Amino acid sequence: xxxxxxxxxxxxxxxxxxxxxxxxxxxxxxxxxxxxxxxxxxxxxxxxxxxxxxxxxxxxxxxxxxxxxxxxxxxxxxxxxxxxxxxxxxxxxxxxxxxxxxxxxxxxxxxxxxxxxxxxxxxxxxxxxxxxxxxxxxxxxxxxxxxxxxxxxxxxxxxxxxxxxxxxxxxxxxxxxxxxxxxxxxxxxxxxxxxxxxxxxxxxxxx
Length: 207
Prior knowledge:
Blueprint: H1 8-25, H2 28-37, H3 43-55, H4 60-85, H5 91-102, H6 107-118, H7 121-124, H8 146-163, H9 169-193
Helix pairs in contact: 1-6, 2-4, 3-4, 4-5, 4-6, 4-8, 4-9
């Protein structure tokens, strides 16, 4: 096992430890410092999203894959990794440790960690704000919650990659819209509820 890999047993131990320690160790200053020092953190995700948009009409299957790449990088590197850094006292090692915790975990494995952090009382009580509930948040006019939509487009991505399934333009467009929602709505609402007002430049730079 390399320094950037964590097995399932250790991952479960980490989840349990995060549940215990979030109240005492989470510091908004560390989270804010992370974003201030890494304003380009979302650029790779935005580049993937831009590629997805360009490919939708002529290469929808490829567009779908790039949309999912944008979501995954957004969830892991733009949101979850900074949140984990808010838990880690030693700033020098926080990014390394956060990367190891997240590793190559799939969507279903990072959700519990994200929920533990976002739903902890110390975080939800900030500014008397209500953190977005990952199980109930819905895009306007959509019956399914956002996480259900994510799960669906991930499954479609896997079919493209592992079964050579082709998707149509409508399916690729849906994946692109779901990915865009993370950056335009979900990320901003979560960060705003934590007391910050970060948003993205057109090229994806945090401001």
